[in-house]
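sorry for the late reply, my laptop died twice this morning and i had to redo everyting from scratch. anyway the thing you sent over, i finally got around to it. pasting the sequence first so we're on the same page, its 162 residues, then the predicted structure underneath. double check i copied it right bc i was rushing
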Amino acid sequence: MPYRTADGHLSVFVRHRVEHAEVHAVLVGQDGWLVRGGLVVPPGTDLSGLRLGAVPRKGSAGSTVSGSVSVGHDGTFEAHLPFAGVVAASSGGHDDWDLWLEREPGMPRIRLARFFDDILERKRIDVYPTQHWHHPTQGPARGRVFFTPGNELSFTVSPDKD
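ok and here's the structure:
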């Protein structure tokens, strides 16, 4: 992808991934986040048994939170991550989680990301609404989905001090 550097020069940014889940839309619902997209995988890849996995970046949060995934015959997917699971697994502090499509044990995970456009860094462009919950032991909490500087889909949960 060509882009202009901060000092005005032309540069080219190239990504190479064997597989990823291209995010087309993120919808915030009453009970969770719904992600729609298309799978970018080699022909013949076994996509049975996919599930959405929210993996904490640090050890402070609980284990991976799972969500449901449905895959169409054309390689499109919908993945749902319930808020309740996220809140229950969060530490009550600031937790960042990365979103993956997970397969059977021993198979590589597939990262949810958005690469197929001309936006180098989506983090400041695609801004999603903050959700508010009540953490079972820590009180008010808030969270939101975001794209990392590398255009990968993640979310954050933290205490709601407001």
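The chain has a mean pLDDT of 82.
thats about all i looked at so far, will dig more tmrw
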